[in-house]
Design a protein that fits this description.
By secondary structure, the protein is α/β, with parallel strands linked by helices. It is built from 13 helices and 15 strands. The strands form three sheets. The chain has an eleven-stranded mixed sheet, sandwiched between helices. A two-stranded antiparallel ribbon has the order 2-3. The radius of gyration is 20 Å and the shape is globular. The two termini are 17 Å apart.
């Protein structure tokens, strides 16, 4: 089987508009969470979110496409262009793409797709129907509504932007979608497919429907400030909904070496498992199975992992279940194995979280720096892990990244340094 390496990283996050600055903010313990500004929240109890600031999708899309494209697609295309530039596959968004990319593929995950655009269209349609003067008048729904809001719109838009003609796939597997996209790209390349593959996740769920929809399930924190996301803390009360995108460029090792690409790290294992239990409540068995599957796929045992990037959403049940699963897999090592949660900094970007956490994990391996989990004032006794709460310098050769989602879907990848 072929070896698969990461050669490009791109991101649009609540921390910053690119991967490098987002990584710098994470290392400094900066929070990207703040008050919701997109719509009025005065009548609902959920006040905070991880909003992307200062991103201009017109830089990456033409004016016409920008006007008819959902924000999650704009984030995805922006992150993909940045990743392709970082990998040396393109020089600038306005320049012709590399012929090497035409044989490549795109796999992008999203949980909610263009839900914000759908919500706006529904509101507009409702108001239009109430207005008798427009009942026989102009068009109430855009002809671009359906094609621009599908989960696959992000992947197909990236393929058009980068001139990729070989393979294109959108994945929707709840919050694990983005990690599944990376894992499936890894499988594709390892089996001998030519590549490269642009893989990751994108979300723009910050609309009234999503905030209330997640909120009424009881999984969203009502804490009204940036301390709301506090994974594994005793007083945690739920996750903070966020948005953004993270895209990685994956290549087969020989192809990357042939073009003298910079290599961040290597993917060596991928595991998936489903709880087959409850639509919203996680089960330990599925998480354990996914982690064990990833270790087996990597040819490693539990003693070989140096760091875990936890799913760590800040929900009471979710964090306790993941902590128990980690202890089940890593046994006595769980007490000393470094663990952190990026979502304490970014909130929960749904399908975009897993790829961002994978990008940060490979930067941890490359730089030997573990960013802190913030807002942890008193660790929950049920989450007895070696939680990193301050910037920590440590040589990391292997890392495990966990990503779990509603429906009991679990995806885990294993990364290692490139040698």
């Amino acid at each position: 089987m072929k070896r698969v390496v990461i050669t490009g990283l791109g991101a649009v996050t609540p921390l910053a508009g690119n991967l490098r600055d987002s990584w710098g903010a994470a290392k400094s313990g900066h929070s990207g969470i703040g008050p919701i500004t997109r719509f009025d929240v005065s009548d609902i109890p959920w006040k905070c979110a991880g909003e992307v600031k200062g991103f201009d999708g017109k830089i990456y899309l033409g004016l016409k496409e920008f006007a008819r494209t959902d924000l999650f697609v704009q984030y995805a295309v922006g992150a993909a262009v940045m990743a392709a530039e970082d990998a040396g596959l393109i020089g600038h968004p306005a320049l012709p793409v590399s012929r090497y990319l035409t044989s490549g593929g795109v796999i992008v995950g999203s949980s909610r797709g263009g839900i914000s655009t759908i919500e706006r269209a529904c509101v507009k349609n409702l108001h239009s129907r109430r207005d008798r003067r427009s009942s026989h008048g102009g068009r109430r729904v855009s002809p671009f509504l359906m094609p621009s809001t599908t989960v696959g719109a992000a992947a197909s838009s990236i393929s058009r932007k980068l001139g990729i003609r070989s393979s294109c796939l959108g994945i929707s597997n709840a919050c694990a979608s983005g990690m599944n996209a990376i894992g499936e790209a890894f499988r594709l390349l390892r089996s001998g497919w030519e590549g490269p593959v642009i893989a990751g996740g994108a979300e723009a769920p910050l609309c009234r429907l999503c905030i209330e929809g997640y909120g009424v399930t009881g999984v969203v924190s009502k804490t009204p400030d940036s301390s709301a996301s506090r994974p594994f803390d005793r007083s945690r009360s739920g996750f903070v909904l966020s948005e953004g995108a993270s895209i990685l460029v994956l290549e087969e090792l020989e192809a990357a070496l042939k073009r003298s690409a910079r290599i961040y790290g290597e993917i060596i294992g991928y595991g998936t498992a489903v709880d087959a239990s409850h639509p919203t409540k996680p089960a330990c068995g599925g998480e354990v199975s996914a982690m064990m599957c990833a270790l087996t796929d990597a040819g490693l045992d539990f003693k070989s992992i140096d760091y875990i990037s936890a799913h760590g959403t800040s929900t009471p049940l979710g964090d306790a279940t993941e902590a128990f699963a980690i202890r089940e897999v890593f046994r006595e090592r769980a007490a000393s194995l470094p663990v952190s949660s990026v979502k304490s900094l970014t909130g929960h970007m749904l399908a975009a979280s897993g790829p961002l956490e994978a990008a940060f994990a490979v930067m941890t391996i490359k730089e030997g720096v573990i960013p802190p989990s913030i807002n942890v004032e008193e660790k929950d006794a049920d989450c007895d892990l070696n939680l990193i709460t301050e910037l920590t310098r440590k040589r990391i050769r292997t890392a495990m990244c966990n990503s779990f989602g509603f429906g009991g879907v679990n995806a885990v990848i294993v990364l290692k340094d490139f040698t």
